[in-house]
Amino acid sequence: MIDSKAAEHARTASTDEVIAELRRRSAFVMVSHVKPDGDTLGAGLALGLALRSLGKRVHYYQEGLVPRNLRFLPDAEKVSSEVPADLPADALWVFGDMSDTGRAGEKLPPLERQNILNIDHHLANTRFGALNYVLEKECSTGTCVMHLLRALKVAITPEIATCLLTTIMTDTGGFMHSNTTSEVLHLSADLIAFGADREEIANQIFANKRVAAMRLLGQALSTAQLDDDGRYCWTIVDDAMLAACGADGEDTEDIIQHLRAVDGVEVAALFKAFDNEVRVSLRGNGRINVQEAAARLDGGGHFRASGLTYHGSVAQAQGAVREALRAEGL
Ligand code: 5GP
Ligand code: MN
Q1: H helical segments located in the chain
Q2: Per residue in 269-313, pLDDT tens?
Q3: Closest ligand to 301 CA?
Q4: For the chain, what is the radius of gyration of the CA atoms?
Q5: Ligand 1 nearest atom to the CA of residue 33, by list position
Q6: How many other β-carbons are positioned within 10 Å of the β-carbon of residue 299?
Q7: Ligand 2: centre distance to CA 310 (Å)
Q8: How many CA atoms lie within 13 A of 230 on its CB side?
Q9: What residues flank ligand 1, with Cβ below 6 Å?
Q10: Which residues pair with residue 80 across a beta bridge?
């Protein structure tokens, strides 16, 4: 049964409703998801910069550290895993790029729904906010933020433009993925005109690799398997491989895109078996909905990019993921 309150929460908030709420509040906490990427951080930092220009108090909450390749983002050094002790009770917590609050980690204080704004572009967002600005057609959470900034009529500084272009370049894979529409390219052109340095962002997020990451990539590719008549490509990275390469979890980012790029592959999976749990990344090439496959195992994401955490052995994770993919048509 859907009660009217739940239905009200499930509704997508209008841009005007969201900016009225942003104007009304005086203090904000921008929340980014665990293992943050350029979208969750860039979107929060951009909105934070804009709100500060309106005289608001802004904090940034992230359970872990900002990854090495995102420390160039303006204000990245302000991101903290601590909640300020003197935060006003009516501070608005702005979750960016998350389909559910669990994606923010386990250390957040209990929050009341009335103090949550949810800005996202994932499929199957659980609408956990009082206001849910969930625009599934947007390429990034950052472009959702850009619509808000335009309505707020704040000046897009080079710093804000840098944060926003980073969200787009992250989630379009440097303008390579299918979500790179003509509108996305026009928005990106505007951001470059506002002072974002596309080449610098590309270098920061796609180059700058540690040699340890390259060695790990080599190992992961040399042990990759092709199954289901070549439609499914997968590989495993574990603690021993990280240690052998001198790598860490941040060095795994690029592996999956190479698995998906193999000719004939429809779905790629990367199993990261670290610390007694298995983090699984899934990527599809357009036929199979990997968001639905991940959702079968309590994960989520997008049609072509999703992820989940499996609590069990890597062999069990492999079996469960293959079953979920087959149920989605692999
Ligand atoms: P990645 O493979 O890069 O970790 O994640 C790909 C996509 O899936 C991202 O959009 C991310 O937000 C989503 N995703 C990854 N892990 C999870 C998860 O455990 N739960 C949910 N709901 N989404 C996830
Ligand atoms: Mn995103």
Answers
A1: 4-10, 15-24, 38-53, 141-152, 158-171, 182-193, 198-206, 211-222, 239-245, 255-260, 290-295, 314-327
A2: 999 998 789 999 999 999 999 999 999 999 999 999 999 999 999
A3: 1
A4: 20
A5: 12
A6: 23
A7: 21
A8: 4
A9: 99-100, 103, 281, 299-302, 305-309
A10: 61
